[in-house]
Amino acid sequence: MKHEMQKNESVMEAIELIQNAKAAQEILRTFSQEKIDAIVYSMAEAVRRETIQLAQMAVSETGFGNVKDKITKNEFATNALYQYIKDLKTVGILRKDTETKTMDIAVPLGVLGALIPSTNPTSTAIFKTLVAIKSGNGIVISPHPSAKNCIQETVRIIHEAAVDAGAPAGIIGCMTELSLEGTQELMHNKDTALILATGGEAMVRAAYSSGNPAIGVGPGNCPAFIDKTANIKNAVKKIISSKTFDNGVICASEQSIVIEEAIESQVRQEITAQGGYFLSEEESEKLSHFILRENGTMNPAIVGKTAGYVAEMAGLVIPDNVKLLVSKQSTVSKTNPYSREKLTPILAMYVENDSKSAIKRCVELLENEGSGHTASIHSENEKIIQDFSVQVPVSRCLVNTPSALGAIGATTELIPSMTLGCGAVGGSSVSDNVGPEHLINIKRVVYDFDCCVSKVA
């Protein structure tokens, strides 16, 4: 009986928040670009002052990652994102061409439904609220239950700042009565214009089957190919720093290293020197039982934990200074946990005969899981880089950069984003890093031209 009441309260709350956001968005959509920008600035400034507190809350509540890197992600979601979006034109007439007699007008979508994961809770909430308001939309957030407090606090700070700067109250909503039924109402409600879904594969599928438009991001499984021409020391340094960043919870972080046989000893030596630990066959087998659950999904007990914690949980004895666990593998399958996404400092390593075989292995890994997401290569050979880029089925191909930070646009020229589209091959409607430009419709205004008959001819 209590559970039924909670479900009903959650559904009713979702409906109320959507209606409040809808009414507020009708007002927001009349605002000028200057007024929208002033609100976004106020939001970014308010949350910037609280990045440390929110990082501490996220780690304390979820047990995932570490405070230092959570702060970095919060700052990225304010500083880097704000610098990218602050001068974007997202309101009114975007472009007018007197020669072709065409005009593009921005049309906000309405109310966005946003699902926030527990792995990157505060930074994703910051990101989605900023891009929603910048594009003239309202937004209602459904927090992951295991991160609800830090997400709700993030939204409170941002909403108060928005209202103080002139935004209508209710433009940003956050569910407090959490249930599957409430989240389903948010996704299925006729007044939800678009769903921004970041999280597990099942949740993303649910968003796409809701009947409403959706932009979803499922699991990553990034292979990192180290070509024999690469600066091996630098490549290993970047991969380890990326895979251990926030204890591996960014879905774009490296999941496998693929190398050529000719450089295996050098790569092994460098990985060991930089804090990696190569598991024996027996240790790999023992650890493998802790990576996946019986239903084939990732074990949440290892997510965002240190290498030492994961090893201890599996009953392994490793040196105290180990940052990363590495297992040499030769097979790829749904039942081989090392060949799938592992949001923790565990890497598979595949050794291939040559670059052609190495690229083929990267494709195989992505087709097993993570198609459309991200792949990386470390190389100084432009022909190899080109061959790799053409063949791997991803939306982001990163060269000589840490994958976790490169994919979100922190170390590359990609759009700064915490929502990474995976394209049609990954079951997504967008292949870009998502920004405000993906959250508006474009109204095309066109005139009749005098010579239409001759142009048709």
Describe the structure.
This protein has a 7-stranded parallel beta sheet with strand order 10-11-12-9-8-13-14, sandwiched between helices. The chain is of the alpha/beta class and 457 residues long. The model has no long low-confidence stretch (mean pLDDT 93). It is 43% helix and 18% strand. Helix 2 packs antiparallel against helix 5.
Helices, strands, pairings?
Blueprint: H1 2-28, H2 33-48, H3 51-62, H4 67-85, E1 92-97, E2 102-108, E3 111-116, H5 121-134, E4 138-143, H6 148-164, E5 172-174, H7 180-188, E6 194-198, H8 201-208, E7 214-217, E8 222-226, H9 232-244, E9 254-260, H10 264-273, E10 276-278, H11 281-291, H12 307-313, E11 324-328, E12 346-352, H13 355-368, E13 372-378, H14 382-391, E14 394-399, H15 403-407, E15 440-446, H16 452-456
Parallel strand pairs: 3-4, 3-6, 4-5, 6-7, 8-9, 8-13, 9-12, 10-11, 11-12, 13-14
Antiparallel strand pairs: 1-2, 2-15
**What oligomeric state do these chains adopt?**
single chain
Percent of residues in helices? 40-55%
Structural class of the secondary structure composition?
alpha/beta
Strand order of the largest sheet: 10-11-12-9-8-13-14
Main β sheet profile = 7 strands, parallel
Give the strand content: 15-25%
How confident is the prediction overall: mean pLDDT? Answer: 93
Number of helices: 16
Taken from the alpha-carbon principal axes, the silhouette is globular
Terminal CA distance: 71 Å
Q: From the alpha-carbon coordinates, what is the Rg to the nearest angstrom?
A: 23 Å
Task: Work out the number of β strands.
Answer: 15
> Spans with pLDDT under 50 lasting ≥5 residues?
none
